[in-house]
Amino acid sequence: MKWAPLIQCFGQYARCIPALLVFAFFPRYAMPQSNSFASLELPATAVVSGIGGVNVSKADYSVGFFQNNPALSSDTLNGWASASYLFYFAGTGLSSFAYQHDFKKIGALGFAVGHMDLGTVDGYDKVGAPTSTFNAGETTLTVGKAFHANHFRFGANMKGVFSNLAGYRAVALLVDLGGAFVHPTKDLSVGLVIKNAGAVLDEYSATSTSTLPFDVQAGITFKPEHMPVRFSGTAYRLTDYKVPFELLDSAGGASTLDKVLAHLTFGAELMVHKNVNILFGYNYLKHKELKMETVGGGSGVSVGAVVRLSWLDFAFSRTGYVTGGAYQFSLGLDTHRILNRK
Questions:
Q1: pLDDT tens digits, 230-272
Q2: Would strands 215-222 and 152-165 be described as parallel, antiparallel, or unpaired?
Q3: Which domains does the chain have, with CATH numbers?
């Protein structure tokens, strides 16, 4: 009976997207054995969205990238601030802000705030009858630190996540541990990160048992010497060997190729100008999510563009879902350059 509200919603599909998203972001109220705090799995910047949604190997690129892998930061990003907004569906969205500051005694630290707003959602009882409306959302606070040892880098993020569903609240404390290798002469970097390890400090209720979206991710970013294209490949969900239900066929099975591709994302950046890159990405698992026979051909495919100047960068991306596109914008500024202008 717990799915009755969703079944009734399909008759009024557009109005019920927020309710569907609540079930996705707070799965403990819908499906046992699902991860909570799902906003942690969304991309914090438009560039990451544009190259497949997951990346742990693009070093020195943007101040917000330390949220993907704490080892990706460097002193070149001191004083940079960024703001990003992901336009999800039916008025829901993810806002993210990041800044890196160089402290005299402890060196550079990265700070980030993210908030997933699911807006006001219509409530239903167990038989699908409408009740009252409620609010839902999640806020994440992150502090990150990176260390360099020759061409190797190591970093850690400490995160606090605060979740709210109709007045029920949950709190979690998590850590990311990352490493990276950046080649000294070639455009090549490799990254590895252990994400979202931690504990739930406060549950939604006395009977709920939230599960953190723990993950291990590894990736590589490289540019062939004589090609105007930079490629990225990332493996994720490396500790999750369960076959996602999106891959199951009518017989309840999945091919070996499907199982492998469900752990991979691919991205490319076409350098059309020294200050302009066009972004492409493909996420196979996202392509399979909610895919039907007659629609969803563009789901999992992302495109975008980024403009980079010495003191500013602006990025835009669109990621395809079966319900339409999710758009994300990011703006980065070198506050030192702006404040010190005469």
A1: 999 999 999 987 766 656 555 566 778 888 888 999 999 999 9
A2: unpaired
A3: 4-339 (2.40.160.40)
Give the residue, 241 or 111, on which the prediction is more confident.
111
Residue 251 structure tokens: 């017989």
Q: Are 265 and 253 in contact (CB under 8 A)?
A: no
At residue 285, what is the residue type?
L
**Residue 328 tokens, joined:** 């994300």
Region 198-223 average pLDDT:
92
What are the C-alpha distances in Å from 200 to residues 43, 164, 216, 254, 291? Answer: 22, 14, 19, 33, 33
Chain position carrying tokens 């404390």: 173
Instruction: Tell me which residue of 260, 262, 269 sits closest to 304, measured CA to CA.
Output: 269
Residue 328 has pLDDT above 70, yes or no: yes
What six digits make up the tokens of 178? 């990352």
- When the pLDDT of each residue in the chain is averaged and rounded to a whole number, the result is 84
Give CA separation, 250 vs 12, 245, 253, 290, 300, in Å.
27, 11, 8, 14, 22
State pLDDT tens for residues 117-145: 987 777 776 777 777 777 788 999 999 99
